């Protein structure tokens, strides 16, 4: 929970506040007294990565501030670059997990080895797919006996 005070948001309120000339423990104040002392509960929006927000804070009838979105701008290029990195990491992990299939002493017969070679080539070709990195058609892993 956040608290709004003097134009700033704090994650924890002070232990004591001066209210109506008296020092009181913060927990002893009700919501209306918090408001009079200049402290209010506040709920920020959940922000998405690569997005810039223009917002404003609106105090409701319940004396709680809520952040309201006025406009957003998403950095599509940075978002796409991050997706590409994550996709390549997944692809690399799948390649590493199938490395054993290409060893000379693996238990695979020639036909199975060719299937695994095709699968691994399809994994390496993922960055060349039409919708990369947003839309990926992942190849199916061959059956292993």
TrEMBL record:
InterPro entries: Phage_tail_APC (IPR031893). Residues 86-143 form the Phage tail assembly chaperone-like domain. Gene3D superfamilies: 6.10.140.1310. It comes from the Bacteria. This is Phage tail assembly chaperone-like domain-containing protein. It comes from Pseudodesulfovibrio piezophilus (strain DSM 21447 / JCM 15486 / C1TLV30) (Desulfovibrio piezophilus).
């Amino acid at each position: 929970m956040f608290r709004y005070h003097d134009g700033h948001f704090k994650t924890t309120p002070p232990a004591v506040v001066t209210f109506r000339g008296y020092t009181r423990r913060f927990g002893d104040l009700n919501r209306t007294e918090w408001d009079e002392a200049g402290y209010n509960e506040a709920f920020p929006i959940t922000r998405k990565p690569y997005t810039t927000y223009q917002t404003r804070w609106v105090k409701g009838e319940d004396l709680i501030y809520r952040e309201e979105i006025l406009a957003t701008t998403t950095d599509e290029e940075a978002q796409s670059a991050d997706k590409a990195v994550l996709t390549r990491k997944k692809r690399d992990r799948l390649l590493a997990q199938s490395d054993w299939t290409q060893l000379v002493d693996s238990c695979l017969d020639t036909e199975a080895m060719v299937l695994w070679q095709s699968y691994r080539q399809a994994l390496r070709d993922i960055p060349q797919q039409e919708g990369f990195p947003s839309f990926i058609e992942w190849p199916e892993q061959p059956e292993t006996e």
